[in-house]
Structure formats: C-alpha cells, structure tokens
Amino acid sequence: MPYFLREVYSNTKWDKTQFPSWLKEGELPSCIVRDLRADDNALSLWEIHDDKSNLPHVIVALACRRKSVKNDFDYALLDENHLDKLIFKPTKKTAKTSYRDMNPYHCDVPNLSINTVVYFAYLLSRHGKFDRMGWKDIETRLKDAYKRGQLDLAKMEPKLKQQLGLSE
Q1: Cβ pair 99, 61 in contact under 8 A
Q2: What is the pLDDT along the chain (168 residues), one digit of tens a residue?
Q3: 168 lies in some domain
C-alpha cells in the first residue's frame, strides 16, 4: 500500500511520551496545529511508493524550498489504508519545487474544515510513522540530484544554492 508524507516541524511534538501531563487521554497538544497549516482549506501531501523508493527524493524536493539545508527534515508517513477516503480525497496537484522529477508526487486534500483537519491530526497521531532525515544526508542528496541534472536552480532559494556551492 502506498503512503502519504506530511512535513512536520518537529517530531517531538507528536511523541505521546512528550505530551504535557495535563492532557486528557486521547487529546492532542495544540502546538501540533502548526504542522497542519492548510492553504486554501487544503492540506499538502506527497505520495510515497509502497517500497518507499521515492521517499528520499521527495524529502529532497521539499528541502529545495528552504533557505538553508542546515536543518533536519521531520516528517510523518501515513499508510493510505488509514486515510478515510470518504473525507480525505487527495487530488494530484503538481508541485513547483526545483526537483522536477518529484513534482508529480504532490497532492492536495481540498475542502477541509477545521474539524476534518483535527481528524487528520488524530489519524496522524494514531497511525503515522514519524521520522527524520538529517541535514547532511539532505545536502549530499541535493548535490547528487544537481549532478544528475534533476534540479531547476532557477526555482531554488539563492541562499540555499550558495550554501551548497551550486551555480546555474
């Protein structure tokens, strides 16, 4: 079964062992709302293959949007089976990252109310697999993608290009 990736700012905010003691059973801390920012009432997700072969490339595509590579990349994977298809209907929406080959893996989940975003948070907290890719790995993979001609440097942040030593 395929997965959907959602970038999160900090895996530790989703770690149940780190939740504040005052939370009631089954509640989620409000600080995770930042990770579920919706644009135009839609959540951005990325399709990940069953074997996760495109996972590192999708992460690199998302890292291309940053101003600096010197940050780890935290994310959550949600198995497609755990996405309630009656409520969440991912639709392809080609991304505009500088990593051209990965842009078709982007989806939006449109028409979300605050209640459905909260429900997505619940699904993610219950079934999501949270992980991190370190910035050194991202940096190496970005440089490799550049060498393979897969990056459109015109779409990359100037500070990031400079940090990586890449030029057009």
Answers
A1: yes
A2: 699 999 998 888 998 888 999 999 889 999 898 899 888 999 999 999 999 999 999 999 999 887 777 789 999 999 998 987 778 889 999 999 999 999 999 999 999 999 999 999 999 999 999 999 999 999 999 999 989 999 988 888 888 888 888 776
A3: no
Rounded (10°) angle between helices 135-147 and 55-63:
90
How many domains, the chain? 1
Within-domain flag for 48: yes
Largest CA distance in the chain: 53
Task: Write out the residue range of the structural domain in which residue 89 sits.
Answer: 3-163
Task: Please report whether residue 76 resides in a domain.
Answer: yes
Query: Quick count: other Cβ atoms within 10 Å of Cβ 114?
Result: 11
The tens digit of pLDDT for each residue in 92-118 reads 999 999 999 999 999 999 999 999 999
